[in-house]
Design goal:
The protein has about 260 residues and is mostly helical. The protein is built from seven helices and three strands; from the N terminus they run ααααββαβαα.
């Protein structure tokens, strides 16, 4: 039974070491994947904004074109009214035609004002369009650089990560399904991905909580697999982890020796 538990602990510790190495390699990428994703989102947003601005500009140009055509129509109407005034027969008819001519003139003035307003809007939108395009070009340049950097780092680590993944598959095959599920569950619940922690200085190497002496003794005995009472990580002793145990007596002796020497 002791040998079986000992072997299970060794297999769990080996799996954790493989995952630690893989995590370290992935950490080399740092924030690059997130930065690339953020830049891609920014670029998509800027491209959408450019489309909307261009649609607005196109809309203003359409309005300007319509107003120019309207002005031509009113100018043609005025020319027609002028021709009619040359053949007027009475004052009532004159006033009616003159009124129509005046209305047409006001419509022309209104259309010209609208054209002026739309032109000003187009100028403003073009400025925003240029600024947005510059931002888009800058983001695209940043994205190209970040992607290239990310690809280079991934390429450098790809071979080693693939090897670690094969080693991981081999380590998982040595574990019972129950321990596989427990390991993955604990690992997924921990921010640092550590599911199996060594005892360091009589404390859990994961959460640094003190391990009670009796519990520490049971862990050393390899009678059963024991977890940390505080964080739930599987605990292994120095025999499994290879990390030397902390001995308070050994740590204290040099100090006492120095004290004796100082008394002499």
């Amino acid at each position: 039974m002791d040998v079986t538990v000992n072997k299970k602990l060794q297999d769990l510790w080996k799996l954790q070491q493989i995952d630690n190495k893989a995590d370290q390699l992935r950490a080399v990428l740092g924030e690059l994947p997130m930065e690339v994703a953020d830049l891609e989102d920014d670029i998509a947003g800027l491209e959408t904004r450019l489309e909307h601005i261009q649609e607005e500009i196109d809309g203003y140009n359409t309005e300007i074109s319509a107003k120019k055509n309207s002005i031509k129509d009113f100018q043609a109407a005025i020319a027609k009214y002028d021709e009619q005034l040359n053949h007027i027969k009475n004052s009532r008819e004159y006033e009616a035609i003159d009124k129509e001519k005046e209305i047409a003139g006001l419509e022309i003035l209104s259309a010209e004002k609208k054209i002026k307003d739309f032109t000003a809007q187009i100028e403003m939108k073009n400025e925003v369009l240029t600024e947005t395009q510059n931002s888009l070009d800058s983001r695209k340049a940043d994205l190209d650089y970040k992607k290239k950097e990310l690809t280079e780092i991934e390429k450098e680590n790809e071979e080693e990560i693939n090897k670690l993944m094969k080693d991981r598959e081999g380590a998982l095959k040595k574990l019972d399904d129950r321990y596989k599920r427990a390991y993955e569950r604990i690992r997924n619940n921990m921010k640092n991905g550590v599911a199996v922690a060594p005892i360091v200085r009589s404390s859990c190497g994961g959460c640094f909580a003190k391990v009670p002496p009796q519990r520490h003794s049971d862990i050393r005995a390899h009678i059963r697999i024991i977890d940390c009472e505080h964080c739930g990580r599987i605990l292994v002793d120095e025999a499994i982890s290879g990390i030397a145990a902390f001995d308070p007596e050994k740590e204290a002796k040099p100090t006492r020796r120095k004290m004796r020497l100082s008394k002499k």
